[in-house]
């Protein structure tokens, strides 16, 4: 399978995934996952998403194994540089026109797989060694993205079709890295800058916006998802509350035209309504997201969490309790948090009977 066909197949699989046809997307990638860099990336990414949603040990181990295999596939297509070539890169810029199309896309796919593998390292085993290993992988990934940016800037491209998928991928990686690193505490950021990392929020956002506008391209919807995640979730988790909701609405409108029943984009639609204070609209969108698919129940847990807060903002404590309890029984993310929320909402009820207080004590103990 040639590169153009592999990108086309992966684009089809991504469209299936974003239209809630998760198993079909996975099966489309599987046959060529050990031979094609894009199939390896697609298959590994689906396994990675499943692992981060479930937090199941077996899913995490399966994703780690798959991403190792994906990295091996990408490595086979990367440009092989000898010792002298590597040393010469220190004093002069390589001639990127000598790189084949397969070699430059392999560098990009390798960076994406390595980033996913590094992030899994952090949740696979929460000890100091895992954090060091994960940090080293992220540093290698950052260097690969910088190399891809150099290739994009200095290679003479024969056609826009050859460039478009690579450029959207570079925008996704470079933009996400700058955005992620720029949000770290200043002391940590100074330390990271000392070892070669740098992060600029405005530059990161502009790269992601540019990538989202490179349409149609394989990674355009992924750039949109990162932007939506940042503006509607991350800014509120971090406490900055500087998300651009107007931009998010424009991005979401485009995404919903392509994926009208997509569970992910319906979820973001609910988040925007919630931020704007329209709880009735938010509840409706979260319920639509839940009803849109039954295959990956973990997406339901994201909606349950938001529904819990929507009902608490409306002082509907019984429904807030219902969703906190559902999360406590079904989700692996943080049962202690769900139990605390359930107890807190129970305390808001006008009930001081011994039985009610005993129920709260039982939940908290």
Structural overview:
The protein is mainly alpha-helical. Helices cover 77% and strands 0% of the residues. It is built from 18 helices and no strands.
Q: Which sequence of SSEs, written as H and E, runs from N to C?
A: HHHHHHHHHHHHHHHHHH
Rounded mean pLDDT score: 90
The chain-level structural class is mainly alpha
Taking the alpha carbons of the first and last residues, their distance comes to 58 Å
- Describe the main β-sheet briefly: none
Q: Level of helix content?
A: over 70%
At a glance:
By secondary structure, this protein is mostly helical.
Primary descriptors:
single chain, 365 residues, 77% helix, 0% strand, globular
Chart the SSEs and their pairings.
Elements: H1 3-18, H2 22-29, H3 37-54, H4 57-77, H5 83-91, H6 101-124, H7 128-154, H8 160-182, H9 186-194, H10 201-213, H11 220-237, H12 245-258, H13 263-275, H14 279-291, H15 298-313, H16 317-330, H17 335-347, H18 354-364
């Amino acid at each position: 399978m040639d590169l153009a066909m592999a990108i086309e197949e992966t684009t089809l699989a991504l469209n299936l995934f974003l239209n809630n046809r998760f198993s079909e997307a996975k099966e489309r990638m599987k046959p060529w996952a050990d031979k094609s860099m894009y199939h390896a990336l697609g298959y590994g990414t689906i396994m990675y998403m499943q692992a981060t949603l479930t937090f199941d040990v077996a899913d995490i181990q399966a994703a780690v194994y798959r991403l190792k295999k994906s990295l091996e596939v990408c490595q086979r297509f990367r440009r092989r540089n000898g010792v002298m070539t590597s040393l010469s890169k220190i004093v002069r810029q390589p001639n990127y026109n000598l790189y084949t199309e397969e070699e430059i896309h392999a560098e990009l796919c390798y960076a994406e797989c390595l980033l996913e593998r590094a992030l899994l390292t952090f949740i696979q085993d929460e000890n100091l060694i895992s954090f060091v290993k994960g940090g080293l992988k992220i540093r290698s990934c950052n260097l690969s993205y910088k190399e891809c940016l150099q290739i994009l800037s200095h290679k003479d491209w024969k056609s826009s079709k050859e460039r478009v998928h690579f450029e959207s991928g570079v925008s996704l990686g470079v933009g996400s890295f700058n955005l992620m690193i720029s949000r770290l505490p200043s002391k940590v950021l100074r330390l990271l800058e000392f070892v070669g990392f740098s992060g600029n929020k405005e530059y990161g956002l502009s790269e992601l916006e540019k990538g989202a506008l490179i349409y149609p391209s394989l990674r355009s919807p992924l750039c949109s998802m990162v932007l939506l995640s940042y503006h509607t979730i991350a800014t509120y988790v971090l406490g900055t509350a500087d998300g651009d909701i107007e931009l998010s609405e424009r991005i979401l409108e485009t995404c919903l035209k392509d994926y009208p029943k997509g569970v992910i984009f319906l979820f973001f639609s609910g988040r925007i309504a919630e931020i704007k204070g329209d709880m009735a609209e938010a509840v409706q969108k979260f319920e639509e997201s839940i009803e849109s698919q039954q295959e990956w129940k973990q997406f339901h847990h994201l909606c349950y969490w938001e529904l819990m807060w929507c009902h608490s903002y409306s002082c509907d404590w019984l429904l807030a309790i219902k969703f906190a309890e559902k999360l406590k029984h079904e989700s692996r993310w943080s049962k202690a948090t769900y139990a605390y929320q359930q107890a807190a909402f129970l305390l808001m009820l006008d009930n001081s009977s011994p039985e009610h207080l005993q129920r709260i004590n039982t939940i908290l103990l």
